[in-house]
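$ run holo --ligand "uridine-diphosphate-N-acetylglucosamine" --emit tokens
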Amino acid sequence: MTNDVQSDVLVVHGDTPLRGEVRVRGAKNLVSKAMVAALLGDGPSRLHDVPRIRDVEIVRGLLELHGVRVSDGVEPSELVLDPTNVERANVDEINVHAGSSRIPILFCGPLLHRIGHAFIPDLGGCHIGDRPIDFHLQALREFGAQVDKTPQGLDITAPNGLHGTKFDLPFPSVGATEQVLLTAVLAQGVTELQNAAVEPEIIDLVCVLQKMGAIIRVHTDRVIEIEGVSRLTGYAHRPIPDRIEAASWGAAALATGGDVFVRGAHQADMMTFLNVFRSIGGKLDIEDGPDGGIRFWHPGDELRAVALETDVHPGFMTDWQQPMVVALTQAQGLSIVHETVYERRLGYTEALNQMGATIQTYRECLGGTPCRFGRRNFRHSAVIAGPSKLHAADLVIPDLRAGFSHLIAALAAEGTSTVYGVNLINRGYEDFEAKLAALGAHAEPPRP
Ligand code: UD1
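-- output --
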């Protein structure tokens, strides 16, 4: 077994309540977009509190390929991004750097403005996965971009420049809203986006762009109006904290019967999660201030079943769903989960069932939120009967969020589990293994 393969496997000793403190840094879902926004400036940008995660490395690599100079700032976790010499990148190199990330899609608007050309790698293949980008392409075309299919991917140009437009998103997609923002800020004229996503990370991206000189009005009812300007400067920005990582540790505390203080967790961005956490019977304590955070703990009483539906903001975030379901396997009664954002986000429950959970998935919508997936053969609702005594298993991590949940389940279970594919978790969780160790988890690479 090579070292690489070994580092991708963890032997996890169960029955371990997580106890202690972890810190969350800038939100992954903002940091990567703010890094792309730096392309739009005519001078360097400074981004603080950047987590050391794989997704940041991917964006950094892609920016460097396009001539952006990226260096570490004076503060630890600070990045300086200098876009003075933006240039076209080699198609093969974009392919290699992008990996499985969807981030190249968001380079389109900024690159069209800066060098008149953008390229999205290998659309049919696994690089972008089966998550569609039709809204992105539709939006770019509305701005006047021309999208040409080539054997390697999509070649995008703007022969007549980019012009403001009126666009109504079929669904409030986070990525497509960011696409419109990053393109409209330097487009000629006014853009009105209807049915926009308004996640806290989107509002934080609006803050970044405003610092650069953009004029963006966020109206009520998901309408965002952008007045194009002719130039933008660099920015200095401290991102909102990662509310997905914060919630993951909170759910982990509940699932393992532990007590975790998440330094950096921010109440306002997590209100919906905190309500559900409390309804289940979890305890929390909120500390305000620049160095504050949220303490999440299991009070020792029986946890209660709940019905919950994932939704766009301000609903219960889809990325909170998987860790919360692990906690719900420990609640008394029948919990119901209706996933309305992604059609295939419940596959990981099979692994939990192997470990002793009782989770049944359904094609029907088990909830009142209108959803695009009903009667379309997608198992997107789940009923969880608890509490279940979980036992150890050999687990293969399928993706980032499900991966964290597998690990929490292994920590909550009786016995020793082997978890394969843990490197996937590093895409979104900084110092994941060190944080686990700091919380008293016993998880180590297998002995050679
Ligand atoms: C972002 C987040 C992800 C989060 C998701 C929803 C990042 C890096 N990732 O992903 O963690 O789970 O928002 O909050 O910020 N869709 C289309 N066509 C498109 C685009 C999207 O049909 O062109 C669909 C998707 O398949 C999905 C839904 O819209 O069903 C929401 O996707 P979207 O909000 O775009 O997610 P991402 O921006 O990829």
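-- notes --
Residues 200-212 form the longest helix (13 residues).
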